[in-house]
Design a protein that fits this description.
mainly alpha, 75% helix, homodimer, 294 residues, Farnesyl Diphosphate Synthase, two-stranded antiparallel ribbon, 14 helices
């Protein structure tokens, strides 16, 4: 039942992403490169979170759909740029050659730029087309814009780049991940809530929920890099170590890290209790994130 | 008198850009890198065009100021990414070392990303803070977003990259520049007009004006690359040829190119006649662009 609902949401996102990226213009190569990375097999976690928090508050998920897709476009841009030779220099992502390996560095940089910009194009047009909801959409866009900028993803990536082959303190590592990964997960949940017309109290509770699962998500990522199955991960196990990346497993060890993931998720789920039955899907999704294998 | 008015507008933009970029947060290096390129001595042509077209229609230029600055942030991002080793591989821009020469490639890519994103942050916050003008601001933002994406700057840059060391037809060269440079000049003029509450007829006329000066601007750039003074240009004369770039001077020769700049500008100025006395500044600005030395 949960899996079915999850698949339903993922398919909604998939279809809308195809609609957005079905662009038959010149120069074709840039649209091809953008599609390559967007359709390289992502789990659509962020868009699903966005749709789910909208639904949780009784909102119309159709109105959250363009917002959810804009988030995925921005997330994909950040992956393309992270993989570049000047950054992490990754050859594989989700088991496939990275964007610059297929299209070259110049096009990969521009495909990333194009996806970031397209995310905003989608958001702005959505607001223009729905004047009755413009304030909700602008609040959602503001949330996403802050998370995508230097106070979010970009700031986190700068710290990541600067700290390679360095031992970090717990606070430094947390700062990095709260920015690099946590911020957009938080924005996904809050943006969906804004679309549903959330009160500031509801935003506050959902933001806290999102922070906890975002943190659990990152620790789980670090664990999978040590004990995951390469085939399912789509990349080499141990790649963090190879790249000189310091992780939560380095600080706490495997066992304690696994306990933390469970505890953070349980605390996150507790916050959802106030929303009653409607929170069922988001609760199951939170547990699903613990059990994931990639 | 014209020069004074121009300086006034440039100073307004300068002050607002400083306000926007006066960010004292971690990681400091990313904000420093962003400021480095934004304050590397640009002429602020696009923001001035935006303020001027707003003023032309009797709008409040204070309301156009954040929009004008967002355009300059986005323009600066495009320059940083254009200069990267994977793109034009330029060491100098406006007589100073390019961003990646000072901060390294990774930070330069991220500083570009940060400026593009910051442009949207500024636009979205401006709309949220001025609910009475949200529709005008959203229309301006939509104009800018289209010009900055694959149908504008990014598409033009892709063609530029793909066509190095290739002879282009007039149509191909025009396509490239209309996207790479023309689109954002057009968006600057139209965005300012939208902020003033322009009618669709006014937008239509100003768009035509902007296309003509945008085209003249690019031909003038190509001419300066052949006969400019290096000190004033801030880069080597003949750098287009060195980089295997095909230009309008290649197609038409110097004399005909210079005639075209004058004719395009005269036609552009004629369009402004319908706006009466209020168009005086924009007319003088158009002539100023012909006479520029950098």
């Amino acid at each position: 039942m949960f899996k079915e609902k999850l698949r339903e949401k993922q398919q909604l996102v998939e279809k809308e992403l195809h609609r957005i990226l079905d662009i038959d213009e010149k120069p074709e190569i840039i649209y091809e490169a953008m599609r390559y990375s967007v359709f390289a097999g992502g789990k659509r976690l962020r868009p699903v979170l966005c749709l789910s928090s909208c639904e949780l508050l009784g909102g119309d998920i159709k109105k959250a759909l363009p917002v959810a897709c804009a988030i995925e476009l921005i997330h994909t841009y950040s992956l393309i740029h992270d993989d570049l030779p000047a950054m992490d220099n990754d050859d594989l992502r989700r088991g496939k050659p990275t964007n610059h390996k297929v299209y070259g560095e110049a096009i990969a940089i521009l495909a990333g730029d194009g996806l970031l910009n397209l995310g905003y194009e989608v958001l702005v047009r959505h607001a223009l087309e729905h004047p009755e909801d413009y304030e909700r959409i602008l609040k959602a866009t503001n949330e996403i814009a802050t998370a995508s900028g230097c106070k979010g993803i970009i700031g986190g990536q700068v710290v990541d780049i600067l700290s390679q082959n360095t031992e970090l303190t717990y606070e430094e590592l947390k700062f990095m991940h709260e920015h690099k990964t946590g911020a957009l997960i938080e924005a996904s949940v809050c943006a969906g809530a804004y679309i549903a017309g959330a009160t500031e109290e509801e935003i506050h509770a959902l933001r806290e929920y999102a922070r906890l699962i975002g943190f659990a998500f990152q620790i789980k990522d670090d664990i999978l890099d040590v004990i995951g199955e390469e085939e399912k991960l789509g990349k080499k196990v141990g790649s963090d170590k190879e790249k000189g990346k310091f992780t939560f497993v380095n600080i706490f060890g495997l066992e304690k890290s696994q306990e933390m993931v469970v505890e953070l998720t349980q605390n996150a789920i507790k916050i959802l209790d106030r929303f009653g039955e409607k929170a069922e899907f988001l609760k199951e999704l939170s547990n699903y994130l613990i059990e994931r294998v990639n």
